[in-house]
Amino acid sequence: MKALASIELRQLNMDWSRSYVMGVVNVTPDSFSDGGRFFRSDDAIVHGRGLRGAGADILDVGGESTRPGAAAVSAEQQIERVLPVVRALAASCTVSIDTCKAKVAAAAIDAGAEIVNDVSGGRIDPGLFEVAAKTDVALILGHLRGRPENMQEFAAYKNVMQEVIAELSEQVEVAVRAGVPREKILVDPGLGFAKNAAHNCEILARLGELRSLGCAVVIGASRKTFLGQLTGRASSDREVATAAANVAAILAGANIARVHDVAGQLDAVRVADAIADGVMP
Ligand code: PMM
User: Fold this and answer.
1) Domain range for residue 91?
2) Which of 22, 117, 171 to mutate to test the pocket of ligand 1 (most atoms within 8 A of CB)?
3) Are 219 and 254 in contact (CB under 8 A)?
4) pTM of the model
5) Probe ligand 1: pick from 118, 258, 261, max atoms within 8 Å of CB?
6) Domain annotation covers residue 6
């Protein structure tokens, strides 16, 4: 398979010689996994700096919860929540903006974000492709069917990995036609987004197939519901389960792990990288 092109950002050169860790900074009152603990922007900034200190390569700032059934948040409200946080954190770390909305992406890029992380892969607001094309940011396209408020109604597949790859491939091509450089596009199979626990496990087992798209792969398993279903544990007690999923994902070909507990997951990522180096020539 062709080697992945590196993605060079202002403060980070992702050359894929190792895996990268993206720390989650939710500025929402209702994210399922950190329960709105960082809703005030000052708290979110302190939290983001802590994740950076713990070794995060990227801080993923989001102002809209995408948990199943979550209500949409207007672009204006998202901008009000995330902008001070993006501005403060981008001064010393690579920041991605977690949004499905073009207006929010544009405002966050103005404030210093260098990656747009869209869990809908541009399906909710295709204007996001033009914003990414004009600004030369990196773009993470996630796989989602429907919208966060109704996505679980669409969790039906004959062959989940094949369908995820086909649907992500369509979005990659739309992005390229809109002017986003192919080498700046990353893909994410969207664990939990229109998927049940069995779908998520099959995706993790077959993650290597996603590499056929020629893009770096992002994985977001951290504290998700399916890990609770597998272990019986509450979201605050899923770090071991998260580590297991991250190691499996990295050994199968993931390049970036999106996590809440950077310090803990960094250990798992480093071990997975060493094992991957050991078995891959
Ligand atoms: N999951 C959530 C939010 N953003 N972004 C990417 N790229 N991949 C994911 O799996 C993902 C994401 C939802 O989780 P949270 O509420 O714990 O942030």
Assistant:
1) 18-277
2) 117
3) yes
4) 0.95
5) 258
6) no
